[in-house]
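stage 2 :: seqdesign
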């Protein structure tokens, strides 16, 4: 990324030792005459300093001017710091590139190493939140306090209809800016330090996944969904806790019915109308177990697909075919299964024959099936690290944070468990001796 310095007249470089290029009979003007005093000079109403910085393009140092200081003392203080950084090789050239310009270039440069869907999300965050607030500001003028005020503004007025946005969204904006400004320091060398690292975010409001459905409601939904050719998708979502994109990515080669295992190797998404086949959210594959009922459901699902293909004159399903496809074997669009779930809930609550259920199903999202899966496992005292691995979390700490309320509810019984265990030891001499 190009860097431009301020105007720098060579006669005011503050270098008293270098006389190269001067004619033999020419005398250097005294510092007082030029207004330069020990590398500091007043220009108009502000003060500037000059520092010699190594320029690799010419193989030697050259004078670089930096101005805009209100007083001589401020200019001298900045000059002293600049000289130290220049000697250490850490001096950052002055540059007036704006935040918007830098982020636009940064997105293009790093698009190759970040997932397309993530890049698209980054662009949305930058366009919607960052550019309106600080897009015209020079990136070198951004301070930690600038970022802190930005977060406060987002928290108060950053959302649609200026209603403010959640702390979780601010965390995401923070993550994008931290990554971009980190590259501005380490890669593009525009900044000496990352102001985002020292910014303060609004206090985070912990949101807990709601238990939308009970066990009975989940069973009712899955029984109703089973009447649809894609009903097995919701069964697998509820019984494995896998993400939507991970399930849609599945090929039959990922299913081992004899071992009752499922290999989660990637994820499917649509970005700007283009289908993207990529890695999982964490970038790692995982193998999860499935129960006997689910194995049987998958077996019937494959038989159903073979029947459909036979009716269309196609060959039976092969290892590379998708688990969830239309009648012609084409992969299902992610929005299809999301929209279908809402339609299935509506049809359950208002069947064609007019006999409404005794207990209608509350509205729920597809992602709620994942939360139900995790919640039921944790309430059944499955270890957190096992649940974390099954969900595909990068670290068990994520599981602990998201489902802390479930784990705390489960912990209520700990005192009773200890009491029972102690009483058993008191009444069982053999166990007590062990």
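stage 2 :: out
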């Amino acid at each position: 990324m190009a860097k431009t310095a301020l105007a720098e007249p060579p006669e005011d470089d503050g270098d008293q030792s270098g006389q190269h290029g001067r004619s033999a009979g020419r005398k250097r003007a005294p510092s007082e005459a030029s207004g330069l005093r020990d590398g500091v000079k007043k220009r108009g109403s502000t003060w500037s300093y000059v520092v010699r910085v190594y320029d690799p393009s010419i193989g030697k140092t050259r004078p670089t001017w930096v101005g805009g200081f209100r007083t001589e003392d401020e200019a001298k203080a900045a000059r002293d710091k600049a000289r130290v950084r220049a000697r250490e090789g850490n001096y950052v050239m002055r540059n007036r590139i704006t935040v918007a310009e830098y982020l636009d270039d940064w997105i293009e440069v790093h698009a190759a190493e970040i997932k397309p869907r993530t890049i698209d999300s980054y662009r949305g965050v930058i366009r919607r939140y960052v550019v309106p607030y600080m897009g015209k500001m020079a990136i070198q003028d951004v301070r930690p306090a600038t970022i802190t005020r930005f977060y406060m503004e987002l928290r108060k007025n950053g959302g649609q209809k200026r209603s403010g946005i959640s702390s979780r969204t601010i965390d995401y904006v923070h993550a994008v800016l931290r990554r971009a400004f980190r590259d501005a320091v380490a890669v593009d060398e525009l900044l000496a330090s990352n102001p985002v690292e020292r910014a303060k975010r609004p206090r985070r409001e912990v949101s807990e996944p709601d238990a939308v459905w009970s066990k009975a409601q989940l069973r009712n939904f899955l029984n109703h969904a089973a009447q649809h050719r894609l009903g097995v998708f919701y069964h697998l979502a509820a019984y494995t806790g896998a993400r939507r994109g991970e399930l849609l990515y599945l090929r039959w080669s990922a299913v081992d019915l004899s071992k009752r295992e499922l290999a989660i190797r990637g994820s499917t998404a649509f970005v700007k109308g283009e289908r993207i086949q990529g890695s999982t959210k964490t970038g790692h594959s995982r193998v999860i177990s499935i129960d006997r009922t689910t194995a049987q459901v998958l077996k019937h699902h494959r038989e159903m697909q073979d029947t459909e293909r036979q009716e269309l004159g196609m060959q039976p399903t092969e290892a590379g075919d998708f688990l969830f496809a239309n009648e012609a074997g084409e992969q299902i669009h992610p929005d299809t299964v999301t929209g279908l779930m809402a339609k299935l809930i509506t049809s359950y609550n208002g069947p064609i024959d007019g006999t409404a259920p005794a207990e209608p199903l509350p509205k729920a999202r597809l992602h709620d099936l994942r939360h139900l899966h995790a919640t039921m496992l944790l309430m059944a005292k499955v270890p957190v690290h096992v649940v974390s691995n099954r969900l595909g979390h990068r670290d068990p700490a994520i599981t602990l944070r998201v489902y802390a309320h479930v784990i705390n509810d489960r912990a209520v019984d700990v005192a009773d468990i200890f009491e029972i265990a102690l009483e058993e030891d008191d009444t069982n001499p053999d166990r007590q001796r062990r």
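stage 3 :: structure notes
- The CA atoms of residues 208 and 402 lie 6 Å apart.
- The first strand starts at residue 36 and ends at 37.
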